[in-house]
Amino acid sequence: MSREQEQNTPSFSEIRQRLQSGEDFDLAHRLQEREYKMYYNHNRNVNGTIVSDRKKTREEQTAEDEHSASLRRMGLAQRCMTDEEYARQLQEEMDRMDAAEQMDKDAQLREDARLAWLLQQESSNSSSSGQSASQVPPDLISFDEQTIIWNVQCESDMYDDSSVVKTEETEEVKPCALNEVWMVCSSCEEECGKPPQPCPRICQPARCQCPAHKGFRRNSKGECVFCHDSVPKL
Question: Where is composition skewed (Basic and acidic residues) in this entry (predicted)?
Answer without folding.
Answer: 52-69
